[in-house]
Design brief:
Chain lengths: 381, 363
């Protein structure tokens, strides 16, 4: 178990610029050509393919620069004093999500005592090691502990996980500042102005990066389909794109239980969907596209994604509203202006709209769940 | 006679002839391959949902050169469609999987029970009741009249009907195991009995006997067959604990206690051959008209012999539905037989979208 006093002490002597430089250097090390950190992550986490890590980390950390970090600090922490020690309860989510979960409280000026998810102890460990290699002094303000002792010691608590986990941790936090990020899902929307082939290429990338495991992965793709033909045409195009990415960015390894559940899901979808596309051959479950027939299509997962026909922006709004408050991001193409789409996303609980192909690449200063990147954990004065 | 009926009758006759040869008939590979592929052709043609499934995954009869290439159907698909190769009007019985009230249950539609009965008779006789005369069978499971869609209840009913003596009895009442009836029947046993039932029923029996400090010594030649697992209906015991408890409570030696493995979606069952060999084993015999592959769940490729993997069964007795059934069970296969380790745990998947999927009731 880490020493909370030592962590506080390590953080309080760090100038903001030094933390910013260390974080930028760490992100750069992960992005660098031939990065040993990416290599180590690929070896430690077979749940991701090497190609997915290459693409997901390099593209995902693009733009996580000192200027952006500095501006974020200035924007959100103008008159604020960070808690000395933040406990961060991590969920086993995608690597870039873990990076930002650890980096943001450091950027705010907190020492961080984090509890890695039992399903993924490796990503935080590698991030901490890469930070140490960049600046040991900054790394001294970050500790990873397998137990939950930090919850009682910290001055603020940041929790990622299931809604139940967040609820429990909120109770443990008591009167201290608490930020909880429960489970959410994202959706993609293909409007009638979209070029179907191009939109399919970009949506396929969103589906494939992190294999549909993250909360920014499109769990549904809504297709504006006034004539009843575009959904099928998009499905055809998407299946072509997914088949290509199957070799370019292979899916990571599945656990046995996941594989069994996925096979059952695919068979059931094939039996009830009016149209579906799968790789040829019984052996591969690498991707699947199916047109949802019923009203409540179950969310897609592991590169198997349902298409849902909607009519215009109102139809999309109705679908998004029905997801409230569980929507995270809305990727879109050919649906008109972002302003209206942001309203649509917000109606579902979403806080971000972006172009298709960018769903997995949120900027680090993204106001996650609409709460601001740093503000929630820092009492404003 | 229609082409479908004619084709089906021919297949049924061939499978019945093989089953009639008994469990000691050679597991003739060429015979199995030819019959399995002929059956697949029939099912592809006349089982519309199965054909739809095969087509969706790019599989057709022309691509199947060996029985192991016949497309298998996950058991979950039986919850989604009527996977039958005959018209609904010809259904004579529907077996349903157990399940919660909210969950849709899997269904196996049958237009004849002849194959099920024949397979059961051959295997049950071989591994549970090899006696030359009918045996007194005591059943600890819901009677068929109370659960007409339970394959387990049907199986026990058929076993009693075909192989049991006239004084065979059901030890279950409406509320489950009737301890008074069970105690009386067991205490009065003067000739060998075959006690058959679900694992959880045996747990209740053991607990009930312990509660009153009762231990029995059933007549020599008595035997126990347990099946079906626990499914949250009693405290769970390991196989060793269960068989040890049964042996202690009933005075039946361990080599007279065996486990059976079956599924609602299959016409045939698998038994430990303990009674015949006198050797306690967890490896079950596979009837000659059945094949089992052990595959890796992600790619459905065969794992090396003895390695654990997902079980896929190819049961020729399933002429009216689909012969290739993909389970959610893990097991190993060696020359000595099949060991079933239990259901593959629905491992908690990594990633928040998957957990949310569960929250939303998907998947």
């Amino acid at each position: 178990m880490s020493d909370p006093a030592a962590l506080r002490e390590a953080a309080c002597v760090l100038p903001a610029e030094r933390v910013i430089a260390a974080l930028e250097g760490t992100f750069a090390a992960w992005r660098a050509p031939g990065s040993a950190w990416r290599d180590a992550l690929a070896r430690a986490c077979p749940v991701w393919s090497r190609a997915a890590i290459e693409r997901g980390v390099c593209d995902g950390l693009d733009g996580w620069t000192a200027d952006v970090l500095r501006a974020l600090r200035r924007r959100e922490l103008e008159n604020a004093r960070a808690p000395a020690l933040a406990a961060v309860w991590l969920a086993g989510t995608v690597p870039t999500g873990t990076f930002s979960a650890l980096a943001l409280p450091l950027l705010a000026g907190c020492a961080v005592q984090a509890k890695p998810a039992s399903s993924d102890p490796e990503t935080p460990r590698l991030f901490a090691a890469s930070l140490r290699e960049c600046d040991a002094g900054v790394a001294d303000a970050l500790a990873l502990d397998a137990d939950d002792s930090a919850l009682d010691e910290a001055d603020a608590v940041v929790a990622y996980g299931s809604d139940e986990t967040v609820r429990i941790l909120r109770g443990r936090a008591g009167a201290r500042p608490f930020v909880g990020y429960g489970h959410k899902l994202s959706a993609a929307a293909v409007g009638r102005d979209a070029d179907l082939a191009g939109a399919a290429e970009r949506a396929a990338l969103d589906v494939c990066l992190w294999d549909g495991r993250g909360c920014l992965s499109p769990a549904w793709i809504f297709v504006d389909d006034p004539d009843g033909e575009r959904t099928g045409a998009f499905g055809e195009a998407l299946s072509t794109a997914l088949e290509r990415l199957r070799t370019d960015i292979p899916r990571g390894a599945l656990q046995a239980g996941e594989a069994v559940a996925l096979r059952e899901r695919r068979a059931r979808e094939a039996l009830r969907s009016p149209a579906c596309w799968f790789p040829s051959g019984e052996g591969s479950s690498d991707w699947g596209v199916f047109v949802a027939g019923g009203e409540a299509a179950a969310p897609g997962t592991l590169r198997n994604v349902p298409l849902v026909s909607v009519e215009g922006i109102d139809g999309l709004a109705a679908r998004c509203t029905s997801l409230a408050p569980g929507l995270s991001s809305l990727g879109h193409e050919g649906f008109g202006g972002e302003r209206r789409l942001l309203e649509v996303a917000r109606a579902g609980g979403g806080s971000r709209v972006c172009a298709l192909g960018r769903m997995q690449l949120p900027p680090i200063d993204w106001p996650h769940d609409g709460m601001g990147a740093l503000q929630p954990v820092v009492p404003q004065t | 006679m229609s082409a479908a009926r004619e084709s089906r009758k021919d297949l049924d006759d061939q499978v019945l002839a093989w089953i009639a040869d008994g469990v000691d008939a050679p597991a003739d590979e060429a015979r199995f391959d030819a019959l399995a592929r002929a059956l697949f052709l029939h099912q592809f043609e006349y089982n519309e949902p199965y054909r739809r499934l095969c087509t969706a995954f790019g599989r057709a009869p022309e691509g199947v050169g060996h029985w192991s290439e016949i497309p298998s159907v996950p058991t979950g698909a039986f919850k989604e469609a009527r996977l039958a190769a005959f018209p609904e009007a010809e259904t004579v019985r529907v077996f349903r999987t157990s399940g919660s009230t909210t969950e849709r249950r899997g269904e196996l539609h049958l237009d004849t029970l002849a194959l099920y009965d024949a397979s059961l008779r051959a295997t049950f006789r071989a591994w549970v009741c090899p006696d030359p005369e009918p045996v007194r069978i005591l059943v600890m499971a819901t009677p068929l009249r109370d659960a007409p869609d339970s394959s387990l209840s049907y199986m026990f009913d058929a076993a009693v009907r075909d192989l049991g003596s006239d004084d065979s009895a059901m030890l279950f009442g409406h509320g489950g195991l009737d301890m008074a009836i069970a105690m009386t029947a067991l205490q009065r046993a003067r000739t060998p009995v075959a006690i058959c039932g679900t694992a959880f029923a045996f747990v209740h029996l053991i607990d009930g006997m312990r509660a009153v400090g009762l231990k029995l010594a059933l007549p020599d030649g008595s035997r126990v067959m347990e099946t079906g697992g626990f499914k949250g209906r009693s405290r769970e015991l390991s196989r060793e604990e269960l068989h040890g408890g049964i042996s202690e409570a009933l005075g039946v030696p361990p080599d007279a206690i065996l486990n059976q493995y079956g599924m609602c979606e299959l016409g045939s069952q698998f038994y430990e051959p303990t009674l015949r060999t006198g050797v306690v084993t967890t490896r079950k015999r596979i009837p000659p008209w059945v094949r089992t592959r052990v595959v890796d769940p992600e790619h459905l490729r065969d794992v090396p012999e003895g390695e654990p993997g997902l079980l896929v069964h190819y049961d020729l007795a399933n002429t009216g539905s689909v012969l290739a059934v993909q389970t959610a069970d893990e097991g190993t296969l060696t020359a000595e037989g099949l060991e079933v380790r239990g259901r593959i745990a629905g491992a908690e998947a990594r990633g928040c979208s998957i957990a949310a999927d569960a929250l939303l009731g998907g998947g």
